[in-house]
Design a protein that fits this description.
922 residues, mainly alpha, 5 strands, disordered N terminus, nucleotide-binding, ATP-binding
C-alpha cells in the first residue's frame, strides 16, 4: 500500500454501521469494476468518521490506498495539501499535456511559469491521478477535510465531480458545521450519526475488560449519544468501580466538546516539554517530520519528549510520532494559550522556508509590526505568483492586522478582498470591504472599493445597483485618470445591458451617454473588448443609426484578432451585439475563438457562458442536437465550478423550438423570478422571445403578440431586434395591424443599416407579410435567397413555410407543396415540433400526406455521448477530447465504447459516416 500520511493504528472491530459499510462497499466495487466513486462522510467529532476510513482501507487490500489528513495550521497555504497528496506522483508530471504540466509546476513553485486558472490545475490533478490508477485501481482517503487549504479542497472537489471511468475512489471525511466542508457540498454525502443503542452497547462491552453494569452501560450510551470515540475513551478512563456501578459517573460525560476537553485535561497533566512538542506536532503537517524535528531542536526538545504522551494515550505507539485520533490534534491546538502558540510559531519561523517564515513570524508577534507586515505582503506576492489566491488573501489580511498606519492597513484589507474575489470566495469579500472602507483615504482607493463591490454584484448576477454605483465612482474620480474612468464606465454599460430597464438609480441611456462621451479610441489591442462596449454604448445613447456602424466595426476587429482575452461575461456581450446586427457569422466566429481561448486557459466559468451563447447560434441553424451538447457541457462546467444554477432555464429557446411546453413554461417562470429578484431585465427579453416563437409555432398569435409587446419599448435600448419579425407576423395574424406596424417600422429602419443577409431576409419576409396582392411573391423569394447565404436554417425554413402558406391561399397547390415539403422536412428533422406540425397541416390542405418522421438510432445517444462522438469524428484523439472536455481519457474511452455499441460500429473511423446515415446534424 502507498501512504502519503502516517497510517493510524488499527481500530477496534467495526460495530454496526451497516448502511455506511454498504455505501463504502459499493464505492470499492465501482473502482474494482473500472469506474469511480466519491463519498463524503460528515458528522460530529468522534462519531466514527475516521474509523470508517480505516474500515475502507482494510476492505481495499487489493487497491492502492492513499491517505491525506488536513492540518489546521496549513489552511492558509495554497495548494499545500494537494502537494502532499501528489508528491508520490510528481514524476508523472512531465508526461502531462503541456498546459496541464505548466499549471502544476506553477502552483508548486517548480518553475517560473505564470499562474494558470485553478480549473486547469484541477484538470492536471485529475489527469495525473487517473494515469496513476491505470496500473492499479486507487482509493484516496482524505480525513479532516475542513482543514484543507481552499485551493486544495476545491481541486479535490473538482476531481470528484469529473471522475467517471477512472478506477479511482475518493472518500472524504469532515466535521459537520465547519466552513471547509462547504466546498464538497454537492458531492454524494452521508451524515454519520451516533451508534444505535444496541450497537453502542456492543462497542462499549468490547472495550471494557472487567465488569460492566447494565444500568451504567445504558447511562453511558445515552449520555454520549452513541459517539464511538467517547464510548471508547470512557471505557479506558473510567475506573472499574465506576463501570461496575459502585461509584458515580462523572458529570458531564465527555462527549463532543466535553470529549475535546477530556483530551485537553489529559494533555495538561503531561510535562511542559511534552506539551510543547504536542503543540508543535499539532501545528506541523503529519508527513513533514523534518520540519517537526527542526523546530523541536530549536525549542530544545528531542524524541524523548514524546514518551509521556505515548504512555498517556495521546500519541500512538510506533516509529513515527502521530496523534492517536485527529480530534486530539484539534484539542491540543485549541487548548494552547496565545503565548504558547507564539513560542512555537517563533521556532517554526526560525526553521522554515522563506515563503512560510513570514506567516510564522507574524503569528509569533503580539503587536502590530510594520516590518513583519511588509514581509507578509512580500509572501503574498509569492502566493499570487503560484495562483494561490486564497493564501494570498489570508496573508494580506494578516498583513493588514499587523499594520500600524490606518491608511496602509485599509489598502491591504482591500488587496485581500480582491484576492478573495479572484479565488471565487465571495462571502469573504464584504467583511474585508467593511474593514477597509472607513479607513480609505483619497478617491482612488475608494473607487477601487466601489469597483470591487460592483464586481461581486455582477459575479452574483445582480446588476441592478451596479451602474449607478459605478457612475458615482466615476464622478468621485473626476478627470484625474481617464483610463480608470473608462474601465468603470465599460463595466457600467455591461451591467446596464444585463439589467436593462430593471436597474435602479439611473437609466441605461444615462449610463450609455456617459460611456460614449468618455470613450477615446486609443490604440487598444485587437482582442480588447473596449471598442465593442463603446459601440454598444453609442447605440444605446444615440440610436441605432449612430451605433450600428461602430458595432459592425468592433465585431470585424474581433474577427480579425488572432486571439481573444475577454472577461468571463464577454461572450454574453458578443452574443447580444451579434443579434443587434443579425450577424450570425461574426457571432459564431468570435464565440468559437472565445471557446478555444477559455479551454486553453482552463477558464471554465467563461467557457460555460461562451458555450451557452454558441448553443443559441446552433439553434438558429437548426442544429438542435449540437445545441443540446453545448448546453449539457456548459451545465457540466457550471456544476464543476460551483456556479451551477437550479433549473434548466438556459434551454428556454430550445424548449420553444422543440415544443416542450411544460419545460418552456417552467423555464420562463424561473427566468421571470430571477429577473425580478436579481434585476436582470435581459432574462425577461430572452423569455419573451422564446414564448413568442413557441406561440407562433402553435398558431396562438394573440399570446405570441402579448409576449412580444411586453418587451417592446418605445425607445429600445438593446436586445429588441431578434423579436421584430415574430412580432410583425403575430400582430398581423392576431388582427392587430398597429402592433405589426410598430415592429415593421423599426425593422425597416434597422435591417438596411445592419445590411446582413439575416437582417435583409427578415425584412423581405415581413414586407411580404405586410404586402397586398401579388407583390408578396418576389419578396418571399428574396427572403429565401438572402437567408440561404447564412447559417440560420430555422429562419430559412420559416420563410419557406410562410411562402408555402401564401401560395396555398392563392390556390397554387403544386407550388405550395414544394415550399411546404421543404419546410416540413427541415422542421421535422430538427425536432421543431410546433412548426413541423404547422407545415404538415398546410401540406395536408394541399392534398399531400406528409410522412411523420420516426426517431433514428442516434437518438439513443446521450448528449455527452453525442458530443464525444462528434469530436472523435472530427479527428481528435482520445487525449485531445479529454483535454477539451476536462475529463480523463478513461472517461472518453468509456463513452466511445457506448457510442460504438449504440451505432453498431467497431471503429472510430466509421463514426462520421454513421452519424450522417443516422440523420445527425452534428
Amino acid at each position: 500500500m502507498l501512504w502519503t500520511d502516517v497510517r493510524p493504528p488499527a481500530g477496534p472491530p467495526m460495530v454496526g454501521r451497516v448502511a455506511e459499510r454498504e455505501a463504502i462497499g459499493r464505492l470499492l466495487e465501482a473502482v474494482r469494476d473500472g469506474f469511480s466513486g466519491v463519498l463524503v462522510l460528515n458528522g460530529d467529532a468522534g462519531v466514527g468518521k475516521s474509523r470508517l476510513l480505516e474500515y475502507a482501507a482494510e476492505s481495499a487490500q487489493d487497491l492502492s490506498v492513499v491517505r491525506l489528513v488536513g492540518v489546521e495550521a496549513e489552511t492558509r497555504l495554497g495548494y499545500a495539501a494537494l502537494h502532499r497528496l501528489l508528491r508520490p506522483h510528481l514524476a508523472r508530471v512531465p508526461d502531462l499535456p503541456q498546459r496541464q504540466r505548466d499549471a502544476l509546476n506553477a502552483v508548486f513553485g517548480l518553475d517560473d511559469a505564470p499562474p494558470s486558472d485553478r480549473h486547469l490545475v484541477a484538470l492536471a490533478t485529475l489527469t495525473l491521478l487517473s494515469d496513476a490508477a491505470t496500473a492499479t485501481p486507487m482509493l484516496f482517503l482524505v480525513d479532516d477535510v475542513q482543514w484543507l487549504d481552499r485551493e486544495s479542497a476545491e481541486t479535490l472537489a473538482f476531481v470528484g465531480r469529473r471522475l467517471y471511468a477512472d478506477c479511482l475512489g475518493l472518500l472524504f471525511a469532515g466535521r459537520e458545521g465547519t466552513d471547509g466542508l462547504e466546498v464538497f457540498g454537492d458531492l454524494p454525502a452521508m451524515r454519520i450519526e451516533g451508534l444505535a443503542d444496541v450497537e453502542a452497547g456492543a462497542l462499549l462491552a468490547c472495550a471494557v475488560s472487567g465488569h460492566l453494569d447494565q444500568a451504567v452501560a445504558e447511562r453511558l450510551v445515552a449520555g454520549t449519544g452513541g459517539n464511538a470515540l467517547a464510548l471508547r475513551e470512557l471505557a479506558e478512563n473510567l475506573s472499574p468501580e465506576q463501570l461496575a456501578g459502585v461509584t458515580p459517573l462523572p458529570e458531564p460525560l465527555p462527549v463532543n466538546r466535553e470529549l475535546e476537553a477530556h483530551f485537553q485535561r489529559t494533555a495538561a497533566l503531561l510535562p511542559a516539554g511534552t506539551r510543547t512538542l504536542l503543540l508543535l506536532m499539532a501545528m506541523t503537517p503529519t508527513d513533514d517530520q523534518a520540519a517537526l524535528w527542526r523546530a523541536a531542536g530549536a525549542l530544545g526538545l528531542s524524541v524523548r519528549s514524546a514518551a509521556p504522551a505515548v504512555t498517556a494515550g495521546i500519541l500512538s505507539r510506533g516509529t513515527t510520532a502521530a496523534f492517536r485520533h485527529p480530534l486530539i490534534r484539534s484539542a491540543v491546538h485549541s487548548a494552547a494559550s496565545a503565548e504558547e502558540r507564539r513560542g512555537v510559531q517563533a521556532a517554526l519561523a526560525a526553521t522554515s522556508a522563506p515563503e512560510r517564515r513570514a506567516w510564522h513570524l507574524a503569528e509569533a508577534t503580539e503587536a502590530p509590526d510594520d516590518e513583519v507586515a511588509a514581509e507578509l505582503e512580500a509572501a503574498s506576492a509569492l502566493a499570487q505568483a503560484r495562483g494561490g489566491y486564497s493564501e494570498q488573501a489570508l496573508v494580506l489580511t494578516r498583513a493588514a492586522e499587523m499594520t500600524a498606519h490606518p491608511g496602509r492597513r485599509a489598502e491591504r484589507y482591500l488587496a485581500a478582498a480582491t484576492a478573495h474575489l479572484a479565488s471565487g470566495n465571495l462571502p469573504a469579500v464584504q467583511p474585508l470591504l467593511e474593514l477597509a472602507t472607513p479607513l480609505l483615504t483619497g478617491p482612488v482607493a475608494r473607487v477601487r472599493a466601489t469597483r470591487l463591490r460592483a464586481s461581486v454584484e455582477m459575479f452574483c448576477s445582480r446588476p441592478g445597483e451596479v451602474p449607478a454605483m459605478l457612475l458615482d465612482a466615476v464622478a468621485r474620480l473626476g478627470p484625474t485618470d481617464p483610463a480608470a474612468s473608462w474601465d468603470l464606465l465599460r463595466e457600467a454599460v455591461q451591467a446596464a445591458v444585463i439589467g436593462g430597464r430593471m436597474i435602479t438609480g439611473t437609466t441605461p441611456r444615462e449610463v450609455a451617454r456617459a460611456a460614449a462621451e468618455a470613450w477615446q479610441d486609443s490604440a487598444s489591442p485587437a482582442w480588447s473588448p473596449d471598442p465593442l462596449m463603446a459601440a454598444m454604448a453609442r447605440s444605446m445613447a444615440y440610436g441605432y443609426a449612430a451605433g450600428a456602424p461602430a458595432l459592425a466595426a468592433a465585431l470585424a476587429r474581433l474577427r480579425d484578432a488572432d486571439e481573444l482575452h475577454g472577461q468571463d461575461s464577454f461572450s454574453v456581450m458578443i452574443s447580444i451585439a451579434g443579434d443587434e446586427l443579425w450577424d450570425v457569422e461574426a457571432k459564431r466566429e468570435i464565440l468559437e475563438k472565445l471557446v478555444r481561448s477559455d479551454r486553453d486557459r482552463g477558464a471554465l466559468y467563461g467557457l460555460s457562458l461562451a458555450l451557452l451563447a454558441l448553443a443559441k447560434v446552433e439553434i438558429w441553424n437548426g442544429r438542435f442536437a449540437a445545441a443540446e451538447s453545448f448546453y449539457t457541457e456548459s451545465h457540466d462546467y457550471m456544476a464543476a465550478t460551483g456556479h451551477f444554477l437550479s433549473g434548466d432555464f438556459h434551454r428556454v429557446l430550445l424548449y420553444a423550438w422543440t415544443g416542450r411546453e411544460k419545460e418552456l413554461r417552467a423555464a420562463v417562470a424561473e427566468m421571470r423570478a430571477l429577473a425580478e429578484s436579481q434585476r436582470t431585465g435581459v432574462m425577461d427579453r430572452w423569455a419573451a422571445q422564446a414564448l413568442g416563437i413557441f406561440e407562433i409555432g402553435r398558431g396562438r398569435y394573440r399570446e405570441a403578440l402579448d409576449a412580444q409587446l411586453a418587451m417592446f419599448d418605445g425607445h429600445p435600448v438593446i436586445l429588441g431586434d431578434t423579436n421584430l419579425a415574430g412580432m410583425v407576423e403575430a400582430g398581423l395574424r392576431a388582427g392587430d395591424r398597429g402592433a405589426a406596424a410598430l415592429a415593421m417600422d423599426r425593422l425597416e429602419e434597422r435591417a438596411p443599416l445592419a445590411g446582413t443577409p439575416w437582417a435583409l431576409g427578415l425584412l423581405a419576409r415581413c414586407r411580404a407579410l405586410m404586402a397586398d396582392g401579388e407583390e408578396a411573391e418576389p419578396l418571399y423569394q428574396e427572403s429565401i435567397a438572402q437567408l440561404e447565404k447564412v447559417p440560420v436554417a430555422v429562419e430559412l425554413a420559416w420563410s419557406q413555410l410562410l411562402f408555402g402558406e401564401w401560395l396555398r391561399r392563392r390556390k397554387r397547390r403544386a407550388d405550395a407543396r414544394v415550399q411546404l415539403r421543404v419546410a416540413y422536412e427541415s422542421f421535422a428533422s430538427w425536432g421543431a415540433a410546433p412548426f413541423a406540425e404547422r407545415a404538415r397541416a398546410e401540406l395536408l390542405a394541399t392534398g399531400e400526406t406528409a410522412r411523420r418522421r420516426t426517431a433514428d438510432t442516434l437518438s439513443d445517444l446521450t448528449p455527452q455521448e453525442r458530443h464525444v462522438a462528434a469530436l472523435a469524428a472530427s479527428g481528435l484523439t482520445n487525449a485531445e477530447i479529454a483535454g477539451q472536455l476536462f475529463v480523463t481519457t478513461s472517461t472518453v474511452e468509456f463513452h466511445l465504447s457506448r457510442v460504438f455499441r449504440k451505432l453498431g460500429i467497431t471503429s472510430r473511423k466509421h463514426i462520421a459516416s454513421r452519424l450522417d446515415q443516422a440523420g445527425s446534424d452534428d
